[in-house]
Amino acid sequence: MFRKFWMRPHSVVAGLIAAVLLLVGLIAAGVSACTSSGVKNVRVQQVRKTVVENPVAAASTNVSLAPRSYRGTSSVGGFLLITVTPESATAGTISYTDLSTNRNGASIPYAVSSDGAYTISDPDGNLVSGYEIPGAGLVLHARKAGREGAEDTLIIAAETGQVTLDGLQGRYNTMRFRTRRGGISVGSVQVGASEMTERGYSPFAAFAGRSVGFESSGHAAAEFALSQDGTYLTTATSRFDGEVVTSYYTGVEQGFFLATTPDGSVIGLPQAANATFDSGYAGTYRGIYYQKTDVQAAAGGAEIATPIVDPVEVSVSADGAVTLTDASSGGTLATGTLKPISEASYLFGENGGLAELTAGSGNGMFTFRVTMNGMAQDFFAAFVTVHGKRSMLFSSFWAAASGTRTPEYNYFYGVGLKGM
User: Whole-structure pTM over 0.85, yes or no?
Assistant: First the structure.
């Protein structure tokens, strides 16, 4: 037997109205909640996407748009006055004057990618790319450098500051970068009250059988003249062909200096307190490198080879293990573990030239050697901190080992910046 349940008509209508109103309220609340939640989620995703995919854009609100002034040296032997004028975190212009060649460029546009690389749109086709630690350091690739305006070169620049020979006094580890005579040298500079002396080791000179590859030069303090604006020093220097030209020297408050000589660039970094590798320099560095392979020496120190200038990525571990990779091709340039240069016994003695070099301490300069296919490759590195940002210099030379010597040789050098 079934029971019948029933309601009066007006009660049914009232119940239906209440149910409809409740349903509408729930739908409205749901839509509102979903819409609010959706906006919040979109905003979060946008912020996260900006931080992960474009760290430069994410930091745009903290970027100063004030012009930045640099003094730079090129490995082909040029000294440049450079101004970077940012228009935003991702774009701006570069202007420069090369005092060695009287060439210049004004308001050249550049754009900054998410990894910090500068793509430069130079209407003259000279400046190509670069990396910068704003207000501290700058590295550029130029294609129309040198006396004839036709050479690829690496430009390394430091912030502009007032400089005197007294202010530069101290001992520095140095690397020479050039586009001739084997490309690289490593050594030291001593700046004193009365003179500046440089001592260096050229792997190319040792390879070519020129004594032990040891080189030295110097200038008396009286030979230097201060520029009108007080930001660099000049002195007269003889070229390899006997012509007398101007060399330029500049420095910054952090205690390192740059020089332009007829033989290329000299970069000096303060010697460290001890010889061991500082694990604080571990990390990934990005920059630019210059390389020549299968080089044949020609008269007057010239070279027959086609240079490569590419972006580079350098991975450095806490124990000093280093891997250099060409960021364009993905090829490995060198890999090994750094050790103090004073421990590289193979660079001393009959075929070496570093005994004098490290007599006054080479702390802060590191090296390793790898031998492959009869070729001994020496790699050198040094590190510096400016405004809390880390940078490194590196260079390498390799050729056939003794007993299997051929006239060809190879080298590369460059700069890596961290925390751009």
Answer: no
